[in-house]
Design brief:
The structure is a single chain. By secondary structure, this protein is α/β, with parallel strands linked by helices. The chain is built from seven helices and eleven strands. The chain has a single domain (6-248), classed as Purple Acid Phosphatase, chain A, domain 2, CATH 3.60.21. The protein has helices at residues 27-44, 73-84, 103-107, 139-148, 151-157, 162-182, 187-200; strands at 13-17, 48-53, 89-92, 111-113, 117-121, 124-128, 205-208, 215-219, 222-226, 235-240, 243-248. Helix 2 links the parallel strand 2 (48-53) and strand 3 (89-92). Helix 1 packs parallel to helix 2. The radius of gyration is 18 Å and the shape is globular. Manganese (II) ion binds at residues 55-56, 94-96, 130, 132, 210.
Length: 253
Amino acid sequence: MNAVQPNAYSTMTTYFFSDVHLGLGTKETERHKEDRLLAFLHGIFPTTDALFIVGDLFDFWFEYKTVIPKGFHRTLTALQEFTDAGKPVHYLAGNHDFWMGDFFAQDLGMRVHFDPFEISIQDKRVYLHHGDGLAENDLGYRLIKPVLRNRFNIWLYRWLHPDLGVRLARGSSRTSREYTSQKHYGEEEGMIREATKKIREGVDIVIMGHRHKPNVQHLDHGVYVNLGDWISHNTYAALRNGTIELNTWEGSN
Ligand SMILES: [Mn+2]
């Protein structure tokens, strides 16, 4: 990597994306989606000073002490190029990929977060939350979330054969998506309410995903950004000189 020139530093950018849901569709669809993501990662690489994945990179991720799922090696390698080059990659778990083990931190050198967190970037207070669990009326999910994240349950699940475990999980991931899409849980309202609360506490920028609907909204003295997704929108946020914007990846930088 070239040394950063002092005058080039101002163009250095922090990027955010979420909800790629790798592994969601057919082999063909997923191949194309991963191609788009890789082109994006390759395109932003030179100007990236840090990269944030705001959840649901995978439609389902589960790892064992000695085994990780196949099919995603190109993305994993591309992300490792960032960390190898000294560009920090933060990965905040979403509701589809919170069963991460130590692979991302230990092998890929990423900074893994399992809970929403605040971080200071370019003198801005930035708050990151995947966006799940904020819906007012979704009591079912609020009750099940601690069960799914329970260490003992994860340990038990690990003893299923991976071919069986992954099949079960894919089925339930699909069922929960169909179930959720039929109901109105006030998800968006819950997210905006949480964003407003954070901004009133002094946060400048709130970034979420999960909704699969790109959105930028100014709330009080801050801004709320929903990152959209990489299933149909190919959207990402760029923070440059303290200003955040939501962009669509059009195939070049
Ligand atoms: Mn999600």
